[in-house]
Amino acid sequence: MYRARIGLALAVSFVSGYLCLYAQTGARSREPFKLGTFDQRGRVFIGAVLRDSQVIDIASANEAFERRDPARAKLTIPSDMKELIGKYESGLKDRLYAIVSDVAGTSTPPQYVYALKDLKVLPPVRPALILNAGGNYTEHTQGAEQQQRAARGTAAPADAPLPKSVPGIWERKPGDERVNPYLFLKAPTAVIGNGDAIRVPEGRVQIDYECEIDVVIGKPARHVPLERAADYIFGYTIQNDVSDRGGRGDSRFGGSDWLIGKNHDTFAPLGPYIVPKEFIKDPMKLRQSLTLNGEVRQDSNTSRMDHNIYEMLQYASNIMSLHPGDVISMGSPPGTNLDRSDKRWMRPGDTVVCTIEGIGSMTNPVQSE
User: Fold this and answer.
1) Assigned domain for 1 exists
2) Band of the pLDDT at 7, cuts 50, 70, 90?
């Protein structure tokens, strides 16, 4: 009896170890994919991007997948990215893994797989809510302040006292000398996709670029504890937070006007895809860069943020409810025209490319309105 118990314990230990090893190696070998919304000659569909060259029509692939095994559980693939995000953890995730694995293992792509170059890439999601961080990279903020002082001919001010906590929204911990987080609203009507033109409004000439990483919310979030913030993230995408630096022409409310500055049509290129969070090892260690007509204008890393993505999500959720498909843009690194002396505003005829490691590159031409 004793020997039988020892044998059983050893067997259980072996099986547990094997399953653990299998899970670990399986996770490492899982084929990564990105998610996007595509147009094929007027037909819009949600696709999984494989190796940045192929796009799997998820709904058509799922139909074929289920036909091959009638006993398999039936799933309805949403036609809207926000719905897919909301249902991702309720069976869709495992089905997508299986579909992508099937395609990756074939030498001849099935009929529901298309060459990326043959499709129009649309904004991956149409967020109901877009929140953008302001002044979340110290180098960007300090550079902007230096340029403003140089323009006015004034000296640097004395050190300001530390900001206070914002009760119920942002509680400052002892020893934390950072400024408080700052978020503003960006209109969903400003969203365009990869390849779409940024249009320069008539009479506005100080049009700036800002390459930013965006967090895509995965489930309803309200008053999220910091230690659980990662649970509410679905994935990551890119935003070029295009900005009109021309001002409003008067000093009302300090002369600042976020409506004019941030919300012209086409001022929120978003995409090209969403990368599910499990395929980004560390979102706080990603290179981000921007080129204007091939010249590097921004080159930084997400590790340079003042407030990380989890702190920003917590802060936002303490103000308003967040829902699947909403995005929070984490602010611009240095290199914008706001923080550099060699200014080169975007103008018609330009091409701007925003790249973030692990997510991809988003390219937009610039045209006159």
Assistant:
1) no
2) very low
